[in-house]
Specification:
Length: 336
């Protein structure tokens, strides 16, 4: 196709035949179409997914599971590039700067919508990216050490009211989805607890296991094994509904408080990526999430398919961006 496009271009440049000139607009349109198709077919032979976290974590695992399925079924080479740091800002900026040709996407999560509220950035998550799809969701869970006297979220909150400022809740932070959920719960339940930050979910769980904090709000992915081993006790899920794998664990809403920290992971591309390119990548990811083996692998990581694509995903991004910003301002949450 590129060869044909070159011949047509040469013909246009080499002749002043009136018949050719009359046809020039149509020929130009053909050239644009050919060049666009060629760029798409070339760039998508390799699709780079930039992951804003270090290898081995939940988001990285998701990228590799889905990327492997796409590579095997779509004939594309999937490259996972880890760019951790600055609360996902480093990876996000890299994708914003990437060519909008379908060769680079970002594996994004809620931090994409949180960080712009606590620091000045070069991008706006509402306009600097093309939303492709939300892929999965995974709830955060309020947990305590198995030796803790608190057996329900109501028990924990009652103790917090009885001893203002003495109980602690640990999570990643200081600016994060769990921190936002914590501030929501503090206000809704009228309690005074201290938020203790750790650099990751593993250190958070270890602090709870070591008795250094009263409670924690961590991802189900991070808590699952310790819960199965009987070392951690789940008090409540910060999710819209209960989940099949933990049917006896109630939601925070069931305790009377509208607090959710349902972590989502999704894919976005640089702004101005052609619509037809976005549509093709969307088909790749939605097809991968329908595969039974992929679903099994994700379920083993406590990741549940929650596919929302295109304009609907864009609406979710804008809604949560506004909601997170409001809570951050009201709680006066500051970045490091």
């Amino acid at each position: 196709m590129l060869c044909l496009g070159s011949k047509i271009a040469t013909l246009i440049n080499a002749t002043i035949d009136k018949r050719v000139l009359k046809r020039a607009p149509a020929v130009a349109a053909i050239l644009v179409a050919l060049s666009g198709h060629a760029a798409w077919s070339q760039t998508t032979k390799t699709l780079k997914m930039i992951v804003p976290y270090a290898p081995g974590g939940g988001v990285d695992t998701l990228a590799r599971i889905v990327g492997d399925q796409i590579g095997r079924t779509q004939g594309s080479t999937m490259v996972i590039e880890n760019r951790p740091g600055a609360g996902t800002v480093i990876a996000s900026e890299a994708v914003v700067r990437a060519a909008p040709n379908g060769s680079t996407v970002l594996m994004a999560d809620s931090n994409l919508l949180i960080m712009p509220h606590v620091q000045k950035l070069t991008y706006d998550p509402r306009t600097s990216f093309e939303p492709i799809c939300q892929l999965v969701s995974s709830p955060h869970v309020f947990v305590v050490n198995s030796v803790s006297p608190y057996r329900t979220l109501a028990d924990l909150l009652a103790a917090a009211r009885a001893e203002p400022g003495t109980l602690t809740l640990a999570s990643v932070g200081p600016v994060s989805l769990p921190r936002i959920a914590f501030e929501q719960l503090k206000r809704a339940a009228n309690v005074d607890m201290t938020f203790v930050t750790y650099p990751g979910t593993a250190p958070t769980a270890n602090a709870l296991l070591g008795g250094h904090v009263t409670s924690a709000l961590i991802t189900l992915v991070a808590a699952a094994e310790q819960m199965k081993a009987g070392k951690l006790r789940a008090l409540a899920l910060a999710a819209p509904v209960r989940i099949e794998t933990l049917p006896d664990v109630p939601t925070v809403a069931e305790a009377g408080y509208k607090v959710e920290a349902d972590l989502w992971d999704g894919v976005v591309a640089p702004a101005k990526t052609p619509k037809e390119t976005i549509a093709e990548i969307t088909r790749w990811f939605t097809s991968a999430l329908q595969d039974p083996e992929t679903k099994r692998k994700l379920a083993a990581q406590s990741l549940f398919p929650a596919v929302t694509c295109g304009a609907d995903f864009g609406l979710l991004i804008r809604k949560q961006y506004d909601e997170y910003g409001r809570i951050i301002r009201e709680a006066n949450i500051k970045g490091e």
